[in-house]
């Protein structure tokens, strides 16, 4: 019988707060982000969940979120695998820029296209399609088999890398995924059947 898969977007980062494009840059969590991560851990504990294996990206905001969650669960020694396949979408030349400044430079319509289209990348960066192309193979070869083997698995990563996974789990098309939002620090819980299809899902809001 398959285990449970939990996806968590990292808590608010310093650059989220400053309205900056982050991508592969590596800012830390804000105080609110720390609170969100701890609340996610408490919510998972209240749900009665514990984990056999964890995955995260190469970026510290996701790693710290995972660490804070596992501390609340009393699982600080849990086996954790890190991989850049789970990194946030690379925003290229936009990384580090204030989103309003980017609109002033390139125009609101162009920035909106870069942010919300499926397959148009910003200069020097990745589209959502590009992010999916590196995230999904890792999910299929490294994460999904562990869940199908009966392990409870938690993945702490980023908005766009997790959207790539959710696109497959939720069977969303390219138009639906661009509008699919994942809140910071809110666990998404998936139960899978023997055919890997989702049999139940839940968004676990903290109290």
From TrEMBL:
The active site is at residues 10, 88. Transmembrane segments: none annotated. Its EC number is 5.4.2.11. Keywords: Gluconeogenesis, Glycolysis, Isomerase. The keyword Isomerase applies. Substrate binds at residues 9-16, 22-23, 61, 88-91, 99, 115-116, 159-160. It holds the Pfam family His_Phos_1. The record marks 158 as: Transition state stabilizer. GO terms for molecular function: phosphoglycerate mutase activity. Catalyzes the interconversion of 2-phosphoglycerate and 3-phosphoglycerate. This is 2,3-bisphosphoglycerate-dependent phosphoglycerate mutase. It comes from Notoacmeibacter marinus. The gene is gpmA.
